[in-house]
Amino acid sequence: MSKPGLSTLIAVSLIASLFSIGCVERKLTINTMPQGALVILNDEEVGTSPVTVSFNWYGDYCIRIDKKGFETLNTNRKLKGPWYDSFPFDFFAQLISSEKIVDSYEWTFKLNEQQQMDRQKLIQNAQKLKKQL
What residues make up the domain containing 36? Predict the structure, then answer.
């Protein structure tokens, strides 16, 4: 029987290291002021603020926040990943660390109270729109 070669030892080491790789847990917490607003992230209802959700990708997110007595907020936010999560660093960062990496982000949105428009102002706005048509 022959002794294992260098290439065999390297292959075994790589396979063993793959089983000891840590994983990345990505979390996004959405807060509102005041709390208790319904949060819709990319057209999916995720809960009432404050709410924490897991995510798989970085990029542009559409956010809609609704709360009775407050103006509905429709906005976009970009979630930018850390430097170690881009190619080729992502592969090596997970190889080096055998522990779970937690990548957490927090967004806070201030809601504006819904303003009651007086009747005369509402009629004036309607007349302006009618002239524009």
Answer: 24-113
Residue 122 domain flag: no
pLDDT digits (tens, 9 = 90+) for 48-94: 999 999 988 889 999 999 999 999 999 999 998 776 666 665 556 55
For residue 54, the domain's CATH number is 2.60.40
Q: Domain count of the chain?
A: 1
- CA–CA distance, 86 with 93 (Å, rounded to integer): 10
Question: What is the rounded CA–CA span in Å between residue 35 and residue 125?
Answer: 32
What pTM was estimated for this model as a whole? 0.64
In a domain, 15, yes or no: no
pLDDT band at 119 (very low <50, low <70, confident <90, very high): confident
118: Cβ–Cβ under 8 A, 6 or more apart, which residues? Answer: none
